[in-house]
Design a protein that fits this description.
The chain is built from 4 helices and no strands. By secondary structure, the chain is mainly alpha-helical. The protein binds zinc ion. Zinc ion binds next to loops.
């Protein structure tokens, strides 16, 4: 087994290559965006990985701002015909999102691995409804 990436640069490289965040060799995906159950090289269980809709948000925001900024500038500077704007802007948006979604998801999984990020776990301290979080409604009818 090799060491985990410990720098931002190595998590970005693992993301760009869509590889395992621990060994950097095994494949991270078994489909276009579906994570493999574990690394085929070092055996790291990918069960910890859950970037949820983070990759989609960052990709849509980044690609959207970049493409729309370029489109707005060319529309003002060159006044291209509307058919050319439709023929370039929508394919650029779709291609930009599809091409960058996998690396961004892989990068966020690598960041989750490095920072040991996981869902919050809640433990009860007991005493719910007895002066804790809620008002005890049983007392008036019980008395
Ligand atoms: Zn691995």
């Amino acid at each position: 087994m090799e060491s985990a990436p410990s720098t931002v640069q190595s998590t970005i490289l693992a993301g760009l290559r869509c590889r395992c965040p621990r060994c950097g060799q095994g494949k991270l995906f078994k489909g276009f965006l579906t994570l493999a159950p574990n690394c085929d090289r070092c055996g790291l269980d990918y069960g910890f990985a859950d970037p949820a809709d983070g990759p989609a948000f960052f990709v849509m925001s980044g690609v959207g701002m970049a493409v729309i900024a370029i489109w707005a500038w060319t529309a003002v500077a060159f006044s291209p015909p509307i058919w050319l704007q439709f023929a370039t802007v929508f394919p650029a948006l779709i291609a930009g999102c599809l091409l960058s979604l996998r690396p961004v998801k892989a990068w966020l999984v690598a960041e989750q691995y490095v920072h040991k990020a996981e869902e919050a776990r809640w433990a009860s301290i007991g005493g719910h409804g007895e002066g804790g979080f809620t008002w005890d409604r049983r007392r008036p009818s019980d008395g």
